[in-house]
Amino acid sequence: MACVAYLRKQLAQFSPDRLIMEEVPRTRGKTNSAFVLAIWGKPKTVLNVHIDTVPSGQGWESDPLGLIEKDGRLIGLGTCDIKGAAACILAALETATPKDVAILFSGDEEHGSEVMPALIKAGHLDGTQNAIVCEPTSCRVGKRHRGMLAIRADFSGPGGHSSLADKTARPLLDAARLAAAIGDYADAHMDFGTAPYKGLCVNIGELGSDGAYNVIPTTSALCMSMRPPPGDDVKTREAEIYDIAARLYPKAVLDTIVTFEPFATRDITIFERFFTDTEIVDLPYWTEAAMMSAAGINTVVYGPGNIEQAHKPNEYVEISQLLTAVKHYSRAVEGGLI
Fold first, then answer.
1. In sequence order, what are the residues at sequence separation of 6 or more whose Cβ sits closer than 8 angstroms to the Cβ of residue 109?
2. E strands within 113-184?
3. Phi/psi of residue 126, each to 5°?
4. Do residue 269 and residue 135 come from a single domain?
């Protein structure tokens, strides 16, 4: 909330016609999230940046919460993903005159993406025709990406001494066998889709239990994810994973963590005219552009920073890319996409 309040103060300096800041309850995690939305006129275009980051982790050569300029780069947590874009938009507002545009700084893209659907449902983006969702694309225009499905399966049993494993429920073994069945499902779909989005990108991310080599677990958990290609239906994939689990282990308790649809720009020609000679690419990662597109907004993904620098120690963004992004964001702020 403190970060959102700070950005609200920054946006207020540019005299928007409306300035909305709201807290959004989250079903996962210990704290709520929030967003701030600045509106000038009747917005036909929205520029969006998510303001949350992942934890800094180990391996930093400097304070991750400090900002260092070195060798033409700005180094710090979130500079690439994607606080550099937030700075670019604020810089654009210093010289550009906003016209029928909205700036949205939203909360929890890295932690479940519950803010975006909440503000869409509330009608805050009604009437918006085009959107630029800021993510690290190296200042290229992203037109498509995969969806995302994540599921957790929990198993339980009485537990006990491992010498009784032949006649005692084995929740960790059951979880491992379900993981193998899901892996077989993934292998059977390796040729599904078209390049560069062949296959379902199924990942078994975690197998855990409260057991040991000589202790039969009482509980175990399997966490998996899948990234269906553009044009595929995530809900159908979810149902198929549930069917596999129900057939093999009907007592397993499944919980869907996220179901995010794939994304494809509705009308790329508008953005081709706007971005002129900027390269248009397919993206390997999911973004909230999928949610805006599902709401009927013609959307692309664009921002400074290389995705290879995101979520890692010594994260950085090239200053040259920030300068390029400011130019495009300035045009969008001035109504260039109308």
1. 50, 52, 115, 116, 287, 288
2. 130-134, 141-145, 148-156, 160-161
3. -60, 135
4. yes
Q: Is 97 left (phi over 0), alpha (psi -120 to 50) or beta?
A: beta
Q: By three-state DSSP, how is residue 205 classified? A: strand
> 184 lies in a domain?
yes
Token pair for 135: 């993510």
Give CA–CA dist 266/160, Å, rounded: 56
What's the distance, Cα to Cα, between the start and end of the chain in Å? 32
For 175, phi and psi rounded to 5 degrees? -65, -40
The backbone region for 59, taken as left when phi is positive above 0, alpha when psi lies in -120 to 50, beta otherwise, is left
The domain that holds 33 is classified in CATH as 3.40.630.10
Q: What's the DSSP call for residue 28? A: S
Can you read off the two tokens belonging to residue 4? 């959102």
- pLDDT at 338 exceeding the cut of 80: no
The SS3 call for residue 298 is strand
User: What is the helix (H) or strand (E) element at residue 282, kind and residue range?
Assistant: strand 280-282
- What is the CB neighbour count within 10 angstroms for residue 168? 15
SS3 category, 3: helix
Q: What is the pLDDT of residues 63-108, one digit of tens each?
A: 999 999 999 999 999 999 999 999 999 999 999 999 999 999 998 8
On whether both 272 and 141 belong to a single domain, the answer is yes
Long-range contacts of the stretch 237-243 (C-beta < 8 A, 24+)? 237/149, 237/200, 238/149, 238/151, 240/185, 241/149, 241/151, 241/182, 241/185, 242/151
Dump the DSSP string for 43-70.
-SEEEEEE-------S--SS-TTS-EEE
- Residue 19 has which token pair? 């300035």
Residues 155 and 141 in one domain: no
Q: What is the pLDDT of residues 164-196, one digit of tens each?
A: 999 999 999 999 999 999 999 999 999 999 999
Q: Is 318 in the same domain as 173?
A: no
Residue 206 β-bridge partners: 223
Q: What's the predicted TM-score (pTM) here?
A: 0.88
